[in-house]
Amino acid sequence: MSNDEIAYHVIVEGRVTGVCFRWAALDYAKDLSSLRGYIRNSSYDQVEAVIQGSETHVELMLNWLRHGPSSARVDNIQINRQPISESLETFTVKA
Questions:
Q1: Per-residue pLDDT for 3 more than 70?
Q2: Residue 40 CA to chain centroid, in angstroms?
Q3: Cα torsion through 59, 64, 52, 9, rounded to 10
Q4: What confidence tens digit (pLDDT) does each residue in 40-91 have?
Q5: Taken in order 65, 40, 32, 85, is the CA torsion positive or negative?
Q6: Cα–Cα–Cα angle for 60, 91, 46, nearest 5°?
Q7: How far is Cα 15 from Cα 4, in angstroms, rounded to an integer?
Q8: What is the CATH T-level fold of the domain 5-89, as seen in this structure?
Q9: Which residues are catalytic?
Q10: Which residues, including other chains, have CB under 8 Å from residue 22's CB and lie 6 or more apart?
């Protein structure tokens, strides 16, 4: 972990469950080497994510989350800065 890392808690609302949103996010995150955190369904029409890493990689992931995969429809996104977590090692999908 480096000193220039940032972290965000994100809630994405819309048609984001049942459309492989989480798995597409995981696939996208594989190309962002510094990215750590997780994504999970939080309700029928919401996914929750914690993303942490270099500012560049976090911003790329935030931009992706604003639209998601082509099968999704993002109606709203809430992005809140949060403290860096020492416990995050990779980017994963949580149940």
A1: no
A2: 9
A3: 100
A4: 999 889 999 999 999 999 999 999 999 999 999 999 999 999 999 999 999 9
A5: positive
A6: 75
A7: 33
A8: Alpha-Beta Plaits (3.30.70)
A9: 22, 41
A10: 39, 40, 41, 47, 93
Structure tokens at 83: 């403290």
Per DSSP (E only), the strands in 1-95 are 5-15, 36-43, 46-54, 73-81, 91-93
Cα–Cα distance list, 34 to 3, 45, 63, 74, 82 (Å): 12, 28, 16, 25, 17
Domain range summary for the chain, segments of one domain joined by +: 5-89
Contacts of 65 (CB under 8 A, 6+ apart): 10, 12, 25, 49, 51, 74, 77
Residue that is written with structure tokens 């914690």 in the block: 50
